[in-house]
Amino acid sequence: MESELLKIYDDQRNPLGVATREEVHRMGFWHETFHCWVTSLIGNQYYIYLQIRSNQKKDYPNLLDITAAGHILAKETIDDGIREIEEEIGIDVTLEELKTVGKIESCTTMEGMIDKEIAHVFLYDKPMNFDDFTLQEDEVSGIVKAEFNAFHEFCSGKAQSLLVEGFNLDPSGMKIPVKMTVDMTHFVPNDGTYYEQVANKIRKLLYKLAENQAET
After folding, report:
1. Hey, CA dihedral for 84, 85, 88, 91, is it positive or negative?
2. 5-215: CATH homologous superfamily?
3. 71-to-120, 129, 158 alpha-carbon distances in Å
4. Whole-model pTM?
5. 58, 104, 164, 216: which sits with the fewest CB atoms below 10 Å from its CB?
6. Nearest to residue 120, comparing CAs of 51, 11, 36, 190?
7. Residue 86 and residue 63: Cα distance in Å, rounded?
8. Alpha helices in 49-103 (DSSP H)
9. What pLDDT is recorded for position 216?
């Protein structure tokens, strides 16, 4: 995986060519990623789903993250990133079912890694339950959901904690129920305002969806 080739960009977002994933993170090149957040209307309340990263992951094991996400390889287009949804969480989605959230740039620095992402963010909104998820266990160890309004308050800094519930896989692959209160230390870190931006953009999209449903 570290030898995968990615397109790289300078700080002005001018293309520089390609580099291995290891070089990209070591040298701090800007690169493109695909993010998909999954939401679902349950009753009269929207929920947003988060993945629990596998404890086998080199970076940020066991932390909460985007529902499904991955790097765009040098030979791929942005649309090709849709493969991550089925690979990581086992949901077969078409491009027509995704709604564009927008492009969000972020930079996260930790020891031995500078992660400068140009994230192409999408929303998949559909009635779902936890049985719909089939996880790629070396990547994802569980799925939890949070009330979207609470998630938005949390990402905006208006709340310091968030209630999530869902499941985690035990070593045999069985789904073990999870219900816990988390804070930002439980999330994959981000030096910028990624979470706030994505929550704001998704909220606008969900309002539009609700308005369209009310009109039909």
Report:
1. negative
2. Nucleoside Triphosphate Pyrophosphohydrolase (3.90.79.10)
3. 10, 27, 31
4. 0.95
5. 216
6. 36
7. 20
8. 83-89
9. 65
